[in-house]
From TrEMBL:
Source organism of this protein record: Bacterioplanoides pacificum
Protein name per its UniProtKB record: Probable protein kinase UbiB
Annotated coiled-coil segments of the chain: 477-504
The keyword Coiled coil belongs to this UniProt entry's keyword annotation: yes
EC number(s) per entry: 2.7.-.-
Topology in membrane: Single-pass membrane protein
Length: 550
């Protein structure tokens, strides 16, 4: 009933803002076009004072944080979404209506156990920014605190947001189960695993201590880096629903006009964005997975050597060593236009069935990817390429890899940022040298030496135990041989028993058939009044046969 009520609310908001007017009706099947034309909500007028982008934005805000996140992703894709809609959806990044400041202050005091005047020498009741999950307030730490007169931002989770998110997640899970139950294509896409992965991700955003630990780890990974700066986290002021961190002053990455006004090196800025992404994914296996423009800034100092500033680390992703390896090999093969290798790697990694014909799969990938090479980013839409690749993969029963969903989302965000900053960015020449260097570092002599140094202390520590371990292993191997021999003998005995039972059943069947045929022959002669000695003899022989074999 809760799912049905939520579906009803979604339909109500859909019709209230007349989002059906955004649907490309001419591309739908005739039956759906007729259904839309006859739908009762068409009696409601389209809100004339609101643009289509504003109607979509208001609808997503009304539907809650999961839908707002969807709108944030769309706001970075001007190649897929018209410009007027993108302009409105960008307001979802940090311009969601805030909740009451008194509620925020009460929550901060409850979490930190002190009055707001004791915690901060200054506190702004008006939020600096408000997003789908939380909002932030400007503040200043007291002069006599451990960090001195430091400007900070205080992040507070929206009250009651857990209930809204859980309700929407239950609805998504309900729809995923329907897909799995009634659609073979739905089962291939693994919707239940994707929803469960998203559940884990979004609940990580609700716990600000997890976000604080993510930010601390990213800051450690990029310590003293010219590429990325992470604000300091003040752990003594962090709880599940409250987080306090250093306030930064930078230019929003989407504000291209202000970046150009200070003569920022836009080409280097775009290239450094790509380098940060690949460094996080391959060097650290720990990447910021919510890199929409509202969370990314550019430092104002030294615009010719621009440095990124990242905030809001509630969503991070990581890959296993196996996924890292296969992903890097796939990308290198892709950059080298070796589509046979791409197809073979997909089979080796288990992403497509082992029965897939490599040459056919390689030809299909080539037909999608070949046209995009030697083009600047302005002329390439990875969104369209991904859609075509998914359509191609569907023909070869490729299953969705839930562990790669966050990575794909981050790639789309990176593309959106690159398109805004420097459309002529040559993604291939930027990424390929980095990947080649990473592969050399990981599998070359230096990597082997580094791994040897890492393992050597443990080997030295266990060296005195090696003779005993070898003796124990040999003893176990000897016992294993004895056990295997005993098992072999038992199997031979079992096979002989089964053979005897089969022979016995064969003889029983033959004796029974002999008895039955003899009795039938005697009964047939008896009914005709003909003395039948042969039949009785046959029946008697059958009885004797059965008795002997028994």
């Amino acid at each position: 009933m809760a799912n049905l009520w939520r579906l009803w609310k979604i339909l109500f908001i859909f019709t209230r803002y007349r989002l059906d007017s955004l649907v490309p009706v001419e591309q739908l099947p005739l039956s759906l076009r007729i259904a839309l034309w006859l739908a009762p909500w068409r009696l409601n007028p389209v809100p004339g004072k609101l643009s289509r982008g504003a109607r979509l934005r208001l609808a997503l805000e009304a539907l809650g944080p999961i839908f707002v996140k969807f709108g944030q992703i769309l706001s970075t894709r001007p190649d897929l979404v018209p410009d007027d809609i993108v302009a409105e959806l960008r307001r979802l990044q940090d311009d969601v209506p805030p909740f009451d400041s008194d509620t925020a202050i009460a929550l901060i005091e409850d979490q930190l156990g002190q009055k707001i005047e004791q915690l901060f020498s200054e506190f702004s009741a008006k939020p600096l920014a408000s997003a789908s999950i939380a909002q932030v307030h400007a503040a200043r730490l007291p002069q006599d605190s451990e960090h001195g007169d430091q400007e900070v931002v205080v992040k507070v989770v929206r009250p009651g947001i857990e209930h809204t998110i859980e309700r929407d997640l239950q609805l998504l899970e309900f729809m995923a189960r329907l897909l799995v139950k009634y659609s073979a294509e739905g089962r291939r896409l693994k919707p239940l695993e994707v929803v469960e992965d998203y559940r884990h991700t979004i609940y990580g955003e609700l716990n600000l201590q997890i976000e604080a630990s993510n930010a601390t780890q990213l800051k450690r990974n990029f310590a003293d880096s010219e590429l990325l700066y992470m604000p300091e986290v003040y752990w003594e002021y962090c709880r599940n629903k409250v987080m306090v961190s250093e306030r930064i002053y930078g230019i929003p990455v989407a504000d291209v006009g202000q970046l150009q006004a200070q003569n920022t090196n836009m080409k280097l800025l775009a290239e450094r964005g790509v380098e940060i992404f690949f460094t996080q994914v391959f060097r650290d296996s720990f990447f910021h997975a919510d890199m929409h423009p509202g969370n990314i800034f550019v430092a104002r100092h030294n615009p010719q050597q621009p440095q990124y500033i990242a905030i809001d680390c509630g969503i991070v992703g990581s890959l296993t060593e196996e996924d890292q390896h296969y992903l890097a090999m796939n990308l290198l093969a892709f950059f080298n236009q070796d589509y046979h290798q791409v197809a073979q790697l997909h089979i080796d990694s288990g992403w497509v069935p082992p029965s897939t014909k490599v040459h056919e799969f390689a030809a299909a990938i080539r037909s999608v990817c070949e046209p995009i090479f030697d083009k600047p980013l302005a002329e390439i839409s990875f969104g369209q390429v991904l859609i075509q690749l998914f359509s191609t993969a569907r023909r070869f029963n490729m299953e969705v890899q839930p562990q790669l969903v966050l990575l794909q989302k981050t790639l789309l965000n990176i593309e959106g940022l690159g398109r805004q900053l420097y459309p002529q960015l040559d993604l291939w020449s930027t990424a390929k040298p980095y990947l080649e260097g990473w592969m050399r570092d990981r599998f070359g002599p230096k990597a082997a030496y580094k791994e040897l140094k890492r393992q050597l202390p443990g080997w030295i520590e266990k060296a005195p135990q090696i003779p005993g371990l070898v003796h124990g292993a040999l003893s176990r191997l000897n016992h294993m041989d004895e056990n295997q021999q005993a098992l072999h003998n038992e199997l031979l005995q079992l096979r002989e028993t089964l053979h005897q039972q089969r022979n016995q059943k064969r003889h029983q069947t033959l004796g029974t058939l002999t008895l039955v045929s003899g009795l039938f022959s005697w009964w047939q002669a008896f009914t005709l009044g003909i003395p039948e000695v042969a039949g009785l003899a046959i029946a008697a022989s059958g009885i004797i046969w059965l008795l002997l074999k028994a």
